[in-house]
Amino acid sequence: MPMIESGVAKYALSSEGESGDHHLVRCSPSGVLVVAIDGIGHGTEAATAAKMAVSFLESDPEEPIISLVEQCHEKLRSTRGAVLSIASIDPTQGRMTWLGVGNVQGVLVRANAREGYTQEVLLLRAGVLGRQLPPLQAAVLPIEPGDTLFFATDGIRSEFAESLSSRENPQRAADRILKEYGAGNDDALVLVTRLTGIHR
I need a labelling partner for 19 at 20 to 30 A (CA). Which of 9, 41, 42, 68 fits? Predict the structure, then answer.
C-alpha cells in the first residue's frame, strides 16, 4: 500500500453555511486517488453536486481517471454541475496521471528537482461536469517519494503556487495557503498530498 501524508483546509462563505468545495483522498492496493471538486455556485446546491461527485469517485478508485471523469459527468447531469482536478498516483510504477476540468489549480512540487524543474503545473481544460465535458487528455508524470501535490479551488488566489515547498508539513501548508491566499469572496479548498513511500 502507498504511504501518504495529506492535509486539507476549507473555507465556506458565511452567508451560505455549507461549502460547495469537497475533496477525496482514497488509497487502494494499486495507488492513491486524489480529487478536489468545486460545485458550481455556492450553498446547498453546489455542495450536493460536489458530494455526489465524491460519492461516485470513491466507489471505484482504481478505474482509469478518464473513464472516471466521463462517468462522473453523466452522474452530475441532474445537478448544477462541478469542476474538478483529479490525480491517480501509482507509486510502484513511479508515475502520476492527472487531469483538470474547469479551474481547480494543480501543482506538483518535486522533492529532488533535476535541472531546476521544481514544479509541474496541471493543464486545465474549460468545461463543467454535468453540463459540458471537454475532450479529455490526461498527462502522465514521473513521481517519487517526497513529491507533493497541491490542489486549490478558485477561492484561492493563483499566486499561491509561488510559495510552495515539498518540505512543509501538508496540513500546515494547507492552513497557511488558505490563510495567506484565500480570496474571502468564494468557497475555498486547499488539498495537499505527499507521497512518502510504499509498503511492500
Answer: 68
